[in-house]
Amino acid sequence: MSVAVSPARIARSRASLEIKSYFRERDSVIFSFLFPIIMLGIFAVVFGGDDVALGSEQGIDFARYFLPGMIASGIMLVSFQTLAISLAIEREDGTLKRLRGTPMPPVSYFLGKVGMILVVGLSQTVLLLAVAAVAFGVELPTDPARWLTFAWCYVLGTAGGAVLGIAYSSVPKSAKSASAVVVGPLIVLQFISGVFFVFNDLPSWLQNVASVFPLKWLAQGMRSVFLPDRFEELEVSGSWQHGPTALILSLWLIVGLVICVRTFRWQRRDDG
Protein backbone atom coordinates (compact mmCIF):
# COMPACT_ATOMS: atom_id res chain seq x y z
CA MET A 1 0.00 0.00 0.00
CA SER A 2 1.55 3.27 -1.11
CA VAL A 3 1.40 6.32 1.11
CA ALA A 4 0.88 9.71 -0.56
CA VAL A 5 3.45 12.31 0.37
CA SER A 6 2.43 15.95 0.17
CA PRO A 7 4.30 18.30 -2.20
CA ALA A 8 5.14 20.51 0.80
CA ARG A 9 6.88 17.64 2.59
CA ILE A 10 8.80 16.74 -0.54
CA ALA A 11 9.79 20.41 -0.90
CA ARG A 12 11.15 20.48 2.67
CA SER A 13 13.24 17.40 2.00
CA ARG A 14 14.43 18.86 -1.27
CA ALA A 15 15.35 22.15 0.42
CA SER A 16 17.40 20.29 3.02
CA LEU A 17 19.26 18.46 0.26
CA GLU A 18 19.85 21.70 -1.66
CA ILE A 19 21.26 23.43 1.43
CA LYS A 20 23.68 20.58 2.11
CA SER A 21 24.78 20.53 -1.52
CA TYR A 22 25.29 24.31 -1.53
CA PHE A 23 27.64 24.36 1.45
CA ARG A 24 29.59 21.38 0.12
CA GLU A 25 30.54 23.38 -2.97
CA ARG A 26 33.63 25.44 -2.14
CA ASP A 27 33.12 27.80 -5.09
CA SER A 28 29.55 28.60 -4.02
CA VAL A 29 30.58 29.30 -0.44
CA ILE A 30 33.47 31.57 -1.40
CA PHE A 31 32.06 33.45 -4.39
CA SER A 32 28.41 33.68 -3.30
CA PHE A 33 28.14 33.31 0.46
CA LEU A 34 31.38 34.86 1.74
CA PHE A 35 32.13 37.29 -1.10
CA PRO A 36 30.16 40.29 0.30
CA ILE A 37 31.69 39.75 3.75
CA ILE A 38 35.20 39.58 2.29
CA MET A 39 34.62 42.72 0.22
CA LEU A 40 33.23 44.63 3.20
CA GLY A 41 36.34 43.66 5.15
CA ILE A 42 38.60 44.87 2.34
CA PHE A 43 36.78 48.21 2.13
CA ALA A 44 36.90 48.63 5.90
CA VAL A 45 40.64 47.90 6.07
CA VAL A 46 41.74 49.87 3.01
CA PHE A 47 39.56 52.92 3.70
CA GLY A 48 39.38 52.55 7.46
CA GLY A 49 40.71 56.04 8.12
CA ASP A 50 38.43 57.80 5.63
CA ASP A 51 34.83 58.92 5.72
CA VAL A 52 32.12 59.41 3.15
CA ALA A 53 31.31 63.07 3.72
CA LEU A 54 28.13 65.04 3.10
CA GLY A 55 29.00 68.68 2.55
CA SER A 56 30.05 70.34 5.77
CA GLU A 57 28.24 67.78 7.91
CA GLN A 58 29.95 64.92 9.68
CA GLY A 59 30.51 61.93 7.42
CA ILE A 60 30.35 58.20 8.12
CA ASP A 61 33.05 55.58 7.69
CA PHE A 62 33.31 53.50 4.55
CA ALA A 63 32.24 50.26 6.21
CA ARG A 64 28.89 51.71 7.19
CA TYR A 65 28.34 53.41 3.84
CA PHE A 66 29.07 50.33 1.75
CA LEU A 67 27.28 47.82 4.01
CA PRO A 68 23.90 48.34 2.21
CA GLY A 69 25.51 47.72 -1.17
CA MET A 70 27.15 44.53 0.09
CA ILE A 71 23.81 43.29 1.41
CA ALA A 72 22.14 43.99 -1.94
CA SER A 73 25.01 42.34 -3.78
CA GLY A 74 24.84 39.31 -1.50
CA ILE A 75 21.12 38.91 -2.19
CA MET A 76 21.76 38.83 -5.93
CA LEU A 77 24.72 36.49 -5.60
CA VAL A 78 22.81 33.97 -3.50
CA SER A 79 19.58 34.14 -5.49
CA PHE A 80 20.33 35.08 -9.11
CA GLN A 81 23.89 33.79 -9.50
CA THR A 82 23.41 30.56 -7.55
CA LEU A 83 20.25 29.51 -9.38
CA ALA A 84 21.41 30.58 -12.85
CA ILE A 85 24.62 28.57 -12.59
CA SER A 86 23.30 25.54 -10.70
CA LEU A 87 20.31 25.07 -13.00
CA ALA A 88 22.49 25.38 -16.11
CA ILE A 89 24.78 22.67 -14.71
CA GLU A 90 21.88 20.41 -13.69
CA ARG A 91 20.35 20.78 -17.14
CA GLU A 92 23.67 19.97 -18.81
CA ASP A 93 24.44 16.83 -16.77
CA GLY A 94 20.89 15.49 -17.11
CA THR A 95 19.85 15.98 -13.48
CA LEU A 96 16.81 18.07 -14.43
CA LYS A 97 15.72 15.53 -17.04
CA ARG A 98 15.96 12.67 -14.54
CA LEU A 99 14.10 14.63 -11.87
CA ARG A 100 11.35 15.46 -14.34
CA GLY A 101 10.87 11.72 -14.88
CA THR A 102 10.33 11.02 -11.17
CA PRO A 103 7.03 11.33 -9.30
CA MET A 104 8.30 14.49 -7.57
CA PRO A 105 6.00 17.41 -8.46
CA PRO A 106 7.84 20.23 -10.27
CA VAL A 107 6.52 22.69 -7.68
CA SER A 108 8.34 20.75 -4.94
CA TYR A 109 11.61 21.02 -6.83
CA PHE A 110 11.32 24.79 -7.22
CA LEU A 111 10.11 25.26 -3.64
CA GLY A 112 13.18 23.33 -2.55
CA LYS A 113 15.37 25.78 -4.47
CA VAL A 114 13.52 28.73 -2.94
CA GLY A 115 13.89 27.24 0.54
CA MET A 116 17.63 26.92 0.01
CA ILE A 117 17.86 30.53 -1.19
CA LEU A 118 15.94 31.80 1.84
CA VAL A 119 18.06 29.90 4.37
CA VAL A 120 21.38 30.73 2.71
CA GLY A 121 20.41 34.35 2.05
CA LEU A 122 19.24 35.02 5.59
CA SER A 123 22.32 33.30 7.03
CA GLN A 124 24.57 35.42 4.85
CA THR A 125 22.80 38.65 5.78
CA VAL A 126 22.87 37.91 9.51
CA LEU A 127 26.57 37.05 9.34
CA LEU A 128 27.32 40.18 7.30
CA LEU A 129 25.50 42.41 9.80
CA ALA A 130 27.24 40.70 12.72
CA VAL A 131 30.69 41.17 11.17
CA ALA A 132 29.90 44.80 10.35
CA ALA A 133 28.72 45.56 13.89
CA VAL A 134 31.27 43.57 15.87
CA ALA A 135 34.41 43.82 13.75
CA PHE A 136 33.99 47.28 12.24
CA GLY A 137 31.73 49.06 14.72
CA VAL A 138 28.91 49.75 12.27
CA GLU A 139 25.85 51.13 14.05
CA LEU A 140 22.75 49.17 13.06
CA PRO A 141 19.30 50.84 12.96
CA THR A 142 16.92 50.58 15.90
CA ASP A 143 13.84 52.12 14.28
CA PRO A 144 11.23 49.40 13.48
CA ALA A 145 10.18 51.33 10.35
CA ARG A 146 13.67 50.90 8.91
CA TRP A 147 13.57 47.16 9.51
CA LEU A 148 10.16 47.03 7.83
CA THR A 149 11.74 48.68 4.80
CA PHE A 150 14.56 46.15 4.99
CA ALA A 151 12.01 43.30 5.06
CA TRP A 152 10.13 44.28 1.89
CA CYS A 153 13.33 45.17 0.05
CA TYR A 154 14.80 41.81 1.03
CA VAL A 155 11.72 39.82 0.02
CA LEU A 156 11.27 41.58 -3.33
CA GLY A 157 15.01 41.45 -4.08
CA THR A 158 15.35 37.77 -3.19
CA ALA A 159 12.18 36.73 -5.02
CA GLY A 160 13.10 38.74 -8.10
CA GLY A 161 16.68 37.48 -8.09
CA ALA A 162 15.47 33.88 -7.79
CA VAL A 163 13.02 33.97 -10.71
CA LEU A 164 15.47 35.94 -12.86
CA GLY A 165 18.15 33.37 -12.05
CA ILE A 166 15.84 30.56 -13.12
CA ALA A 167 15.01 32.42 -16.33
CA TYR A 168 18.65 33.30 -17.05
CA SER A 169 19.75 29.68 -16.56
CA SER A 170 18.62 29.02 -20.13
CA VAL A 171 21.12 31.53 -21.56
CA PRO A 172 24.41 29.63 -21.07
CA LYS A 173 24.92 27.16 -23.92
CA SER A 174 26.84 24.74 -21.70
CA ALA A 175 27.74 24.11 -18.08
CA LYS A 176 31.34 25.15 -18.78
CA SER A 177 30.28 28.60 -19.93
CA ALA A 178 27.69 29.11 -17.18
CA SER A 179 29.99 30.81 -14.67
CA ALA A 180 31.38 33.29 -17.19
CA VAL A 181 28.00 34.06 -18.74
CA VAL A 182 26.38 34.63 -15.33
CA VAL A 183 29.17 36.16 -13.22
CA GLY A 184 30.51 38.58 -15.85
CA PRO A 185 27.36 40.71 -16.31
CA LEU A 186 26.64 40.60 -12.57
CA ILE A 187 30.09 42.01 -11.76
CA VAL A 188 29.48 44.87 -14.21
CA LEU A 189 26.12 45.59 -12.58
CA GLN A 190 27.76 45.69 -9.14
CA PHE A 191 30.20 48.35 -10.33
CA ILE A 192 27.53 50.60 -11.86
CA SER A 193 24.74 50.07 -9.28
CA GLY A 194 26.24 51.75 -6.22
CA VAL A 195 27.73 48.61 -4.66
CA PHE A 196 31.43 49.51 -4.90
CA PHE A 197 31.15 53.25 -5.59
CA VAL A 198 29.03 56.17 -4.44
CA PHE A 199 26.24 55.97 -7.03
CA ASN A 200 25.94 59.75 -7.40
CA ASP A 201 29.62 59.95 -8.42
CA LEU A 202 29.10 57.79 -11.50
CA PRO A 203 28.57 59.36 -14.96
CA SER A 204 24.91 60.09 -15.64
CA TRP A 205 24.74 57.67 -18.57
CA LEU A 206 25.94 54.83 -16.33
CA GLN A 207 23.36 55.83 -13.74
CA ASN A 208 20.67 55.61 -16.41
CA VAL A 209 21.84 52.17 -17.50
CA ALA A 210 21.95 50.91 -13.92
CA SER A 211 18.47 52.28 -13.23
CA VAL A 212 17.02 49.77 -15.67
CA PHE A 213 18.15 46.84 -13.52
CA PRO A 214 16.99 45.74 -10.05
CA LEU A 215 20.37 45.78 -8.26
CA LYS A 216 20.55 49.58 -8.32
CA TRP A 217 17.13 49.88 -6.69
CA LEU A 218 17.82 47.15 -4.17
CA ALA A 219 21.06 48.86 -3.11
CA GLN A 220 19.25 52.20 -2.84
CA GLY A 221 16.51 50.65 -0.73
CA MET A 222 19.11 49.15 1.60
CA ARG A 223 20.88 52.51 1.90
CA SER A 224 17.64 54.00 3.15
CA VAL A 225 17.70 51.41 5.94
CA PHE A 226 21.29 51.66 7.15
CA LEU A 227 22.39 55.22 6.37
CA PRO A 228 21.44 58.39 8.28
CA ASP A 229 18.50 60.34 6.85
CA ARG A 230 20.77 63.20 5.82
CA PHE A 231 22.43 60.93 3.24
CA GLU A 232 19.21 60.95 1.25
CA GLU A 233 20.64 64.10 -0.34
CA LEU A 234 23.38 62.01 -1.97
CA GLU A 235 20.85 60.12 -4.07
CA VAL A 236 20.48 61.31 -7.66
CA SER A 237 16.85 62.28 -7.09
CA GLY A 238 17.50 63.65 -3.60
CA SER A 239 15.11 61.01 -2.25
CA TRP A 240 15.20 57.35 -1.21
CA GLN A 241 12.35 56.74 -3.70
CA HIS A 242 10.68 53.89 -1.81
CA GLY A 243 7.70 53.90 -4.15
CA PRO A 244 9.70 53.51 -7.39
CA THR A 245 11.97 50.99 -5.67
CA ALA A 246 9.04 48.74 -4.72
CA LEU A 247 7.47 49.18 -8.15
CA ILE A 248 10.57 48.37 -10.18
CA LEU A 249 11.56 45.39 -8.03
CA SER A 250 7.98 44.08 -8.35
CA LEU A 251 8.04 44.58 -12.13
CA TRP A 252 11.27 42.60 -12.41
CA LEU A 253 9.70 39.84 -10.32
CA ILE A 254 6.74 39.68 -12.71
CA VAL A 255 8.97 39.81 -15.78
CA GLY A 256 11.09 37.00 -14.36
CA LEU A 257 8.05 34.85 -13.71
CA VAL A 258 6.74 35.36 -17.24
CA ILE A 259 10.11 34.49 -18.78
CA CYS A 260 10.42 31.41 -16.55
CA VAL A 261 7.06 30.08 -17.65
CA ARG A 262 7.83 30.65 -21.33
CA THR A 263 11.46 29.56 -21.53
CA PHE A 264 12.35 27.11 -18.74
CA ARG A 265 13.50 23.73 -20.06
CA TRP A 266 14.09 20.49 -18.18
CA GLN A 267 16.61 19.26 -20.73
CA ARG A 268 19.26 20.51 -23.11
CA ARG A 269 18.34 21.99 -26.48
CA ASP A 270 19.98 19.08 -28.33
CA ASP A 271 17.87 16.55 -26.40
CA GLY A 272 14.82 17.53 -28.41
Blueprint (SSEs and pairs):
Elements (H helix, E strand, L loop, with lengths): L6 H18 L1 H8 L1 H12 L4 E4 L2 E5 H31 L2 H6 L5 H31 L7 H25 L6 H18 L11 H7 L3 H13 L15 H22 L9
Helix pairs in contact: 1-6, 2-4, 3-4, 3-6, 4-6, 4-7, 4-8, 4-10, 7-10, 7-11, 10-11
Keywords: Antibiotic resistance, Cell membrane, Membrane, Transmembrane, Transmembrane helix, Transport
Membrane topology: Multi-pass membrane protein
InterPro entries: ABC2_TM, ABC2_TM_bact-type, ABC_2_transport, Nod_factor_ABC_transporter
Oligomeric organization of the protein chains: single chain
DSSP strand tally: 2
Q: Uncertain spans, ≥5 residues at pLDDT below 50?
A: none
Which percent range fits the helix content? over 70%
**Class from helix and strand fractions:** mainly alpha
Shape: globular
Strand line-up across the major sheet: 1-2
- How many discrete structural domains? 1
Instruction: Output the radius of gyration.
Output: 20 Å
Helix and strand run = HHHEEHHHHHHHH
- Could you report the average pLDDT, rounded to the nearest whole number? 89
The total of helices stands at 11
Main sheet makeup = 2 strands, antiparallel
Percent of residues in β-strands: under 5%
- In angstroms, what separates the terminal alpha carbons? 37 Å
